[in-house]
Design brief:
Belongs to the Orn/Lys/Arg decarboxylase class-II family. LysA subfamily. This protein is of the alpha/beta class and 431 residues long. The chain contains 12 helices and 22 strands. Helices cover 30% and strands 26% of the residues. The strands form 4 sheets. Strands 3, 15, 16, 17, 18, 19, 20, 21 and 22 form a 9-stranded mixed β-sheet that branches. Helix 8 packs parallel to helix 9 (259-277). Bound molecules: ligand LLP.
């Protein structure tokens, strides 16, 4: 079910360390990452391209979890890095991440963000709209340099986890529409802009996708456009960036494919299309976020109060909630959990796990079966490694949780728990 070991006493282990010890040592709520698992996920992507001898970049989407330590692990695993803000770029640079492997996204990149990207000469900027072409061109000329760019296109396919919606004109805030001529216009504009070197195109069809057909449909659409652009615009696509979105397991209901299968399917389809149109095989880039860190992370909470409504429900409250995991409140996302001290115990209670925010919607898990629970027990929620810490917030003024990396029996604090002083650092008096 979950990729973690259980020791002889029935305790949940991560990277060779007892999670109860981690909860004791660092306090809760606590994000714990199994670094070996992060590496394994990353290698599933990287090695599959390598095995098939395909030039590729696997760019970790740092929005899933951005921190100095994570950028360092990404560097160690030869990943590239997708950033969507100056903050994520700043983190990558502070971590010593190779700038030539950083790609920048965003539908409203500010002048300042673009300037920083140009100053550091990052690998490429993914152009999202016409305004950005003008703005970036101006900046690049002011700074007397050039920049590699991709254009982001919307192929008219949107993945909704199990099915795909085909839209004629794509109604999205991101990118240039492939079907209404705007993408072609952007291509023409960039051809007339010599300081911006157009390397290729980008598309991202969605997130938490379990099948490969959506990617295949998108690739078909992209190559129809590439074929037209080859003939009419003399454009050769060096880089084809297919985005992220590979699904992971949160609960038993989720049946993701092995990560290798996604890569194989992408390569197979690109092979098919390049042959069909006699187009040279481009370098393939992907941008997995969730599938690299999601199942490598768990959150440890301490259980506090309990409320039983006879015949209705038993609420079990933990010391975190929507401040460290917004996903259940925001997307109705489902999670699985165990008692860290009794993973395989008899699941005799049906309970619902509540966060401690002042909001009825702050529920982490509805109707889960667990062994008998007592206050001060540690609850471990699985698959919280992506979009947990990165979407953490200060609602009700809860300080942000700490993050620990564990590998080969060694635990290391990589993001300190926020103190009240940290949180009030920017508050000024009005007296
Ligand atoms: N590339 C682009 C252009 C993206 O927009 C995204 C995600 C990714 C890559 C990475 O997708 P992944 O491999 O992680 O699925 N906060 C939401 C997810 C938002 C994803 C936004 N874009 C959640 O918690 O489910």
């Amino acid at each position: 079910k979950h990729p973690f070991k259980v020791n002889d006493e029935g305790h949940l282990m991560v990277g060779g360390i007892d999670t109860l010890e981690l909860a004791e040592k660092y306090g809760t709520p606590l994000f714990v990452y199994d670094v070996e698992r992060i590496r394994k996920n990353a290698r599933a992507f990287v090695d599959t391209f390598k095995k098939r001898n395909i030039r590729a970049q696997v760019a970790y989407a740092s929005k899933a979890f951005s921190s100095i330590a994570m950028a360092q692990v990404a560097k160690q695993e030869n990943l590239s890095l997708d950033v969507v803000s100056q903050g994520e770029l700043y983190t990558a640079i502070k971590a010593g991440f190779p700038v030539e492997r950083i790609h920048m996204h965003g539908n409203n990149k500010s002048r300042e963000e673009l300037k920083m990207a140009v100053k550091y000469q990052i690998g490429c900027i993914v152009i999202d709209n016409f305004y950005e072409i003008e703005l970036l061109n101006e900046i690049v000329n002011e700074m007397n340099t050039t920049m590699n760019v991709l254009i982001r296109v919307t192929p008219g396919i949107e993945a909704h986890t199990h099915d795909y919606i085909l839209t004629g004109n794509e109604d999205s805030k991101f990118g240039f529409d492939l079907t209404n001529g705007q993408a072609t216009q952007a291509l023409k504009k960039l051809k007339e802009t010599p300081s911006l070197h157009l390397k290729g195109i980008h598309c991202h069809i969605g997130s938490q996708i379990f099948e490969t057909d959506g990617f295949i449909m998108a690739i078909e659409k992209l190559f129809t456009a590439l074929n037209t652009w080859k003939e009419e615009e003399d454009f050769e696509c060096e880089v084809l960036n297919l985005g992220g979105g590979f699904g992971i397991r949160y609960t038993e209901e989720d049946q993701p494919l092995p990560l290798e299968n996604y890569v194989d399917a992408l390569i197979d389809e690109v092979e098919k299309q390049t042959k069909k149109y006699h187009i040279p095989f481009p370098e393939i880039w992907i941008e997995p976020g969730r599938s690299i860190v999601g199942d490598a992370g768990i959150t440890l909470y301490t259980i506090g109060s309990m409320k039983e409504i006879p015949g209705v429900r038993k609420y079990i409250s933990v010391d975190g909630g929507m401040t460290d995991n917004l996903r259940p409140a925001l997307y109705d996302a489902k999670y699985d959990a165990v008692l860290a001290a009794n993973v395989n115990g008899n699941k005799e209670e049906e309970v619902s796990i509540a966060g401690k925010c002042c909001e009825s919607g702050d529920m982490l898990i509805w109707d889960i079966h667990l062994p008998k629970i007592r206050p001060d027990d540690v609850l471990a929620v699985f698959s919280t490694g992506a979009y947990g810490y990165s979407m953490a917030n200060h609602y009700n003024r809860f300080p942000k949780a700490a993050v620990v990396f564990v590998e080969n029996g060694v635990d290391k604090l990589v993001v300190k728990r926020e103190s009240f002083e940290d949180m009030l650092d920017n508050d000024l008096s009005y007296n």
